[in-house]
Each structure stands twice: as C-alpha cells, then as structure tokens.
Amino acid sequence: MIESQMQTKISSFFKSAENDDEDDDLSFWEKQEDDIINTYSRTRPNPNAVSSPSNTQTQRPNNTTYAQFHLDFGQSDFLLRACPTCGMNFTPGDPHDDKSHTQFHKSFTHGIQFRGWTQETVIPLPTLQSGRILVVSETAPSSHRKKAQEVVRMMEIELGSEWILHHLCKVYLFVSLHRIVGCLVAEPIKEAFKVVSASLDSVKKRKVKPCSTTLQFGNVIFQRELQKKVASVTHSERMEGALFCHSEPTAAACGIRAIWVTPSNRRKGIATQLLDAVRVRKSFCTGLELEHSQLAFSQPTSAGKALATSYTGTGSFLAY
C-alpha cells in the first residue's frame, strides 16, 4: 500500500495533465509528412537581350587624376644623387629635396649659422684679427653643447662618425660673420709617441722612357693611339701616408682629437688660430700655457699631417 502511494506521488511529480496535451500535439506534427512548395518560377534567359555597359564595366570616379613624376630611361640618378661636396643624398627635380640640399650644402661649405649666446666663453687671442673663438666644455649649458654636437656631426661627413666627441673633450668653435667656420676637439692625455720623420726627397720617382707614336712603312705613316695606364706604386710611395712612431712614449698634455674647417674658408689660417687658442693660458689647462711640443695629434689625414708638421716646425711631431 505504501509503495503504490509513493509511486503515484512520484509519477504525478514528473508528469502533469498539461504535459499530456503537449505530447499529443508534438506527436501529431511528427506524424505529418513535410511538403516542399515552390513560391517562385525560374525564367529562361532571353538570347536576344543586350547587356548594358553599366552592368559589365566598372565605372571610375570622375574626380580621379593621375600625374607622372619621373621617366625611367635607365639613368643613374633616377632616385637619389649624392652631392660630391657635402655628401647629401637628394632627388634632383624634387622642390623639397632641392631646397633641403641647398641649405645643407651652404652650411657645409660656408659654416653653420650662429646667432651667438648671452654668456659666451671667448678665448682672448692677440693674433686674431677678425671673428672670435669660443670654447664649449662638458659643464657648459645644454644649448651650447647641442650646438657643438651639431658642428661635430658636420665634421663627421669628412672625418668619419662616432669617434670624435666624448665627455672629456673641449670643443673650440671659430665664429666669423655669424657662422661657425672651424672646429677643434681636444682631450687631455698623458703621453704620446714621436713620429719618425721621413723626407719626401728620399722617395725615388720612376722615370718613364719616351716611346714613339708613329709607325712608318715606306711612304705609309701610321699614328699610334696612346692609352694612359696607372703607374705601379712602389713600396715607399704606398707607405707615404702612414705614420711610423718610436716605441718609447713621450710626455704630452693635450691631444688634438680632430680639427676641421669649412671648404670655403680653408687656407686662411683658421686651423692655426684654433691651435693657438688651445695653448693659451686658462684655455685647456688652467694656469698653464702649453708649448708646441706638448700637443699631440690623433689619426691625422694627409692634410692634418701637413698641418702638424707646419705648426710644430718638425716632421717628428707627437701622435697618439
């Protein structure tokens, strides 16, 4: 008796009278068969019909314009040209590139524009007739150091990059007519090596035997065409630009790390005046005036070697 009552209660819990009606409805739809009814009819294509151009071709917008900037005929300067003087790469014919190149070329050849500073460290030089020489050290204001770095970047075009300036260097700027036309970078050193002097007269020049340019066979004379060939370089000529130094070090106080003058202002004594400014008292060494023999030159080019020889008065100058 108890089990029948419990069974009744459980069945009544899972199944109600309303569910019986829903089950009958579902069973009714499941027994019905599905019928597919077409609500449209397909029309056959007309072979005589003519397609309109608007359906077959894509119309371009009326506001589209085209412009041709370059003609490629295989020329070498189609994209960029490197200026042989300032080294800047630019596109000839481009107004923006032409303007940028003109400005940079003038700064390289005539000097970077300079309006001056309110507080300048001017080196007094009695032999200086025009212009002035300024010195910029690590303790100078940031605006002074930024201008010095701008000049050094200009120097790196000819002397190489990423080796000229570091935090111990002093930068000497030669200012003339509101432009910086020369720069010298100096650093403190303790020793250097004396260069072995070599005379140019010791280099023997090879003589070329003259050769006849005509050939004659009876009454017929032929003119020979001459082609210039590069002469072979001897060992002495090849080593002319190299520096040979003594192995024993020599005491030195100032190292000329780099010196540079704009191309249009060379042969005017600016480099010599910059070297004199380094030697002045309270300029590089406080309370001490340097002698010519206390200056050493780093990695001199052929022009730098000639300058060092002329300024020190000897081919046995100091190098480091």
UniProtKB/TrEMBL annotation:
Tell me which species this is from.
Flemingia macrophylla
Q: Does the keyword Transport apply?
A: no
User: Residue limits of the N-acetyltransferase ESCO zinc-finger domain?
Assistant: 68-106
Is Mitochondrion one of the keywords?
A: no
What is the protein name given in its UniProt record?
Uncharacterized protein
Family statement drawn from the similarity comment of this UniProt entry: Belongs to the acetyltransferase family. ECO subfamily.
Pfam families, per this entry?
Acetyltransf_13, zf-C2H2_3
Q: Which CDD domains match?
A: NAT_SF
SUPFAM superfamilies the UniProt entry points to = Acyl-CoA N-acyltransferases (Nat)
Q: Which InterPro entries match?
A: AcTrfase_ESCO_Znf_dom, Acyl_CoA_acyltransferase, ESCO_Acetyltransf_dom
Q: Where is this region: Disordered?
A: 39-62
Q: Which superkingdom is the protein from?
A: Eukaryota
Q: Where in the cell is it found?
A: Nucleus
Question: What broad taxonomic lineage does this protein's source fall under?
Answer: Eukaryota, Viridiplantae, Streptophyta, Embryophyta, Tracheophyta
Annotated Gene Ontology cellular components are: nucleus
Q: Where is the N-acetyltransferase ESCO acetyl-transferase domain?
A: 251-320
Keyword terms of this UniProt record = Acyltransferase, Cell cycle, Metal-binding, Nucleus, Transferase, Zinc, Zinc-finger
GO MF term list: acyltransferase activity; zinc ion binding
